[in-house]
Amino acid sequence: xxxxxxxxxxxxxxxxxxxxxxxxxxxxxxxxxxxxxxxxxxxxxxxxxxxxxxxxxxxxxxxxxxxxxxxxxxxxxxxxxxxxxxxxxxxxxxxxxxxxxxxxxxxxxxxxxxxxxxxxxxxxxxxxxxxxxxxxxx
Length: 138
Hints:
Elements: E1 2-8, H1 14-28, E2 36-41, E3 54-60, H2 63-71, H3 73-82, E4 90-96, H4 112-137
Antiparallel strand pairs: 1-3, 1-4, 2-3
Helix pairs in contact: 1-3
């Protein structure tokens, strides 16, 4: 899967940004081949004021379908609308989505020697505990 991302920096004039953005989004919605559209509004950062205000993500099946969408009449109109914003206020990115599902990182497979060593250490620890407990009971 391919994703086209637009990262918008904090606007100097929020009302003007929102007006241009809404017009731009209406044109994006007319583009062909979009599998999924996602808009993310950044609400803060643990590192202070965020450098990103909003993110628009457009998902495509392939580079070819992405290119067709961007080169379509609606895609060209959307690009013209986007450029009503200051050029340094947004960043365009072409990305390849290589991990879609969430989840956790699996633990590395343990080799037989380290498993045997761990089991031996655990057994030895139990033996020492049993010996100390028996000695203290006398």
